[in-house]
Amino acid sequence: MTQAHQERLQADELPAGSVVSVLLEQHAKIRELFEQTAEARGAARRRAFDELRELLAVHEAGEEIVVRPVTKAAADGKIADERNHEEKEAAKELAELESRDISSRGFAESLAELESDVSDHADAEERDEFPYLLSAVDQDTQMKMGARLLKVQRAAPTHPHPTAAGSPTAQAVLGPFAALLDRARDAFRKPADG
Q: Which is an annotated Pfam family here (predicted)?
């Protein structure tokens, strides 16, 4: 059984749409996208990598803006600070990865390093933060936090148009990870409407 499958089983045991359920589903999808990116070639690799970048941006921004202010109360903020530091390091790795030729050996090696770091980060969240969210945050707040995460995830483009794959112009429009992350953060900061 894959780790992604285990995360989905854990998510299924929680109320649908709760913050931890949403994050577990995102972790599972991120793991699958890393695998798809590593295995694919050509335009299929570009599409998988673009989808991975978009989901990482939405996921990271959601954790930073929705989850970390709540988990900052745990362990004098140390856990939240450690996770934020890991995310900043992963963003740097991803920025470097974006500069590589997607068909190069260097890309594959850097992708494997990033996958390992992101996997370790997700494991730490599941071990250190999720139990706190489940035990110290009331159900209503968990559902509201999950709804915020889902709202932005649904609004974010997760599948670049097929004609954008491999196009320098389209890639410039999609922008580097830092720009994707900024757009995701902006989406989380917009006032909730309904």
A: Hemerythrin
